[in-house]
Amino acid sequence: MFKNSLKNIGRSWSNLTGSLLGDRFDKIDPDLGDGDEALLRRQLQKWTTARGGEVSARKDAMQIGQLYQSLSSQGRERFLRMLANEFGPDREAIKTACMKYVAADPDDCGRIEEDLRELLISPRLMLLSQFNALPQGIKFLVDLRQDLLGFCRDDAELTTLDKEIRRLLATWFDLGLLEMRQIDWQSPAALLEKLVDYEAVHEIDSWQDLRHCLHLDRRCYAFFHPSMPGEPLIFVEVALTNGIAGSIQELLDESTPDIHPEEADTAIFYSISNAQRGLKGISFGNFLIKRVVESLKNELPNIKTFSTLSPIPGFARWLKKLDPSEVMSLLGEERASELHDLLTREGAADLNQMLEKTVWRKSDSASEALRPILKMLLYHYLHSTREDGQPIDPVERFHLGNGARIERVNWLGDNSKKGMEQAHGLMVNYLYPVKDIEANHEVYATKGKIVVSSAVKALKNGK
Q: For residue 228, what is the DSSP state?
């Protein structure tokens, strides 16, 4: 899809201006060999030092875009490394300005501060900023950053370039500029295809699957940017139900009769997908959910409960890292004794070995014996934190930061292969209590408090 995007962008720029690259660039090596790299370096130096007007600056940006689209993955990486290593701020000039600032009289500080601000804007950023004014230029830069993220790894210079572009994009994707739209079966086919491509939580295998996601008792909402009207930035899928859903398979079952929207009392957010990897680190999801809650409240006043049905992507991985003695310690004496008896009956050395065998899934007695044990361990997982005090689970961080509370843990809520591998089938409902969202957000943001229901709190004691 990214390659097609670049082709479309390049075609639109060519239509506007014709070929911008000239004879020297027509035969450029897609891998950007040493000779071509030197040629490009000279051209970039020319572009970044040019003092022309806005028209010539935009033409320079279009040249960069056309050049970039002609390169292979290797060529793009060399291009981006050159930008990162050779076209950053002038460090010597910044150092000199800093020394002047330290020694300056108070009356001169304002002028030197302004000089410093100018010096901190890198030549490459000034050039890349021109994409804001080009047709499809913002989409081009989003996709370019997607490439850059794949190259960064532990490279300090590329990481600096990435942060620079991310800050630039964050100003262009201010929430005040975004439009929330509902997507339904009447939406353009090209947009519906993108939902299939971008769905990150529950794979959509066919048009029939997609149609079910857009049925009478379903809703899909997305944020759009005016410069990318056909490209969703992030989208959320919602099911209208009676009561809080506990199984994703039941929720997605196409044979289940539709509920008339005016007869439902609950909205279940069951999939949130970021559609543009190049916008990683720029958060839209929390605002989208709140906007959807307001929209549904206005459209369907009968909807009183707003909840998610969410995966727990790191639980199985966390559990696997625990030493058997740690598992027993977390469970306490009573549940640890039950686990010991279960392992003896099943002929397993420890819990992780038993879970890996997967035989327990076919045994009702083993499954029921594991239920309180895994739920209790999940409680401890959901209360485990990183060095910064934030929960280790990314989905949990997202929803608690939005003002939700952990409402319920669902046993075998996702019995798909992915669900069993990620969390041994467990899923979580994060409830968005309309009256308490802001209070929950504040207590989490200021005190790090994880707000849970009484039912979830009881899991700590193995209940």
A: B
Using CA atoms, how far apart are residues 340 and 335, in angstroms rounded to an integer? Answer: 9
| Closest to 22 measured CA to CA, from 53, 59, 48 | 59
What tokens appear for 190 in the block? 């090209």
The whole-model pTM stands at 0.87
Give the torsion sign (CA, 252, 255, 261, 262): negative
- Which residues have a Cβ under 8 Å from the Cβ of 390 and sit 6 or more positions away? 397, 448
CA angle 208, 212, 216 (to 5 degrees): 140
Pairing status of strand 234-241 against strand 266-274: antiparallel
How many Cβ atoms sit within 10 Å of the Cβ of residue 260?
A: 9
- Top-ranked range on mean pLDDT: pick from 121-135, 272-286, 391-405: 391-405
Residue 198, H or E segment: helix 189-198
Active-site option among 70, 227, 310, 380: 310
> What's the whole-number mean pLDDT along residues 378-401?
96
| C-alpha span between 95 and 90 (Å, rounded) | 9
pLDDT score of 22 more than 60: no
The candidate with the shortest Cα–Cα distance to 463, out of 366, 332, 361, is 332
399 is catalytic: yes
Give the pLDDT confidence score for residue 52 in this predicted structure.
Answer: 64
Q: At what angle do helices 137-152 and 54-69 cross, to 10 degrees?
A: 50
Q: Which residue ranges form the domains of the chain, and what is each CATH number?
A: 2-87+122-172 (1.20.140), 176-308 (3.40.630.180), 315-461 (3.40.630.150)
Q: Report the chain's mean pLDDT, rounded to a whole number.
A: 90
SS3 content of the chain, % helix, strand, coil (to 5): 60, 10, 30
pLDDT for residue 19: 44
Which one is catalytic: 202, 380, 399, 424?
A: 399
pLDDT tens per residue, range 84-106: 999 999 899 999 989 988 988 88
Residue 361 gets which letter from DSSP?
A: G
pLDDT at 31: 92
Q: Are 119 and 93 in contact (CB under 8 A)?
A: yes
Residues 136-158 pLDDT 10s: 899 999 999 999 999 998 899 99
310 is a catalytic site residue: yes
Per-residue confidence at 51, pLDDT binned at 50, 70, 90? low
Residue 428, CA distances (Å) to 202, 336, 423 in order:
15, 24, 10
- Residues 270, 280 contacting (CB under 8 angstroms): no
Residue 10 has pLDDT above 60, yes or no: no
Decide: residue 197, CB within 10 A, 0-12 exposed, 13-18 middle, 19+ buried.
Answer: exposed
Tokens 């519906």 locate to 192
